[in-house]
Design goal:
Layout: E1 7-12, E2 17-23, E3 26-33, H1 45-52, E4 61-64, E5 79-80, E6 83-84, E7 89-91, E8 101-104, E9 107-110, E10 113-116, H2 119-129, E11 135-139, E12 144-150, E13 153-160, H3 162-172, H4 176-179, H5 186-198, H6 200-217, H7 221-239, H8 241-244, E14 249-252, H9 255-266, E15 273-275, H10 277-294
Parallel strand pairs: 1-4, 4-8, 5-9, 11-14, 14-15
Antiparallel strand pairs: 1-2, 2-3, 6-13, 7-8, 9-10, 11-12, 12-13
Helix pairs in contact: 2-10, 3-7, 5-6, 5-7, 6-7, 7-9
Amino acid sequence: MTGTIDWIAADWGTTNLRLWAMSGRVPVEARTDPRGMSGLAPGDYGTVLTEATAGWPAVPVIASGMVGSRQGWSEAPYAPVPCPATPRLVPVPGDPGGRPVRIVCGLRQDDPADVMRGEETQIAGLLAAHPKFDGVACLPGTHTKWVRISAEEICNFKSVMTGEIFGLIAGQSVLRHSVEGGECDMPAFLAAVSDALARPERGYGNLFQIRAEGLLGDLPPQIARARLSGTLIGWELAATKPWWLGSDITIIGASSLARLYSEALSAQGLAPRSVSVEDATLAGLSAAYDRFRSEG
């Protein structure tokens, strides 16, 4: 480990904790801990943080994600949109571990009702790198977010449960036997996206056909998986067409999932750009740390 550690960046989600010892905006060391929000009581967080950062100095911690939820360490209230993309912070009382800990607030939209927690930090990171960005950020994941950004503000957003639905169908439905262990066949994926966009109702009726073709025609798992994924993402694109049609799109997501969205949007005549989750998260947490320092 080299470099002076000035502060610690934390992405504390439902299933795990990711930590970076930071020297300015440069990560010096990274760690991952499996103790996410879902397995912790409010009184556990200080101990987990102390253990997970053992050997690092007692410098300020800036955290985002589900750590700030109602079930997390200390609730960081949702900030209403429209609002500047600059992160808002709330303190964890008592300076646990002898250092200040600040949590980034999530965002709320009252009409239509929607919330996000964690993605706002990645959007702040996008705008830290591209302050003049005017368009839509797509953040694919368990609950994909489509976020409209203009004049360095988050205007509004929409959440779609595509990732969670895919996980339920692929892991718990009869289709789990057909898609298990399969990679994604891109031509089959794009054909399913196109069909779901053009005829959404037909895709719903064709889901069981994936299983039937596996039984009767030995449908390869990579094609079965591609058709399921393409159908669900196609439905999502049909539901969010007002967001992406004719827009400048930046995708912030894990590489494999971001590629699927990029290919699907490119097939609709768009030219989306991609930013890694880690880069966006660190840039956003760095912007939050800058705000912490400016507030004294």
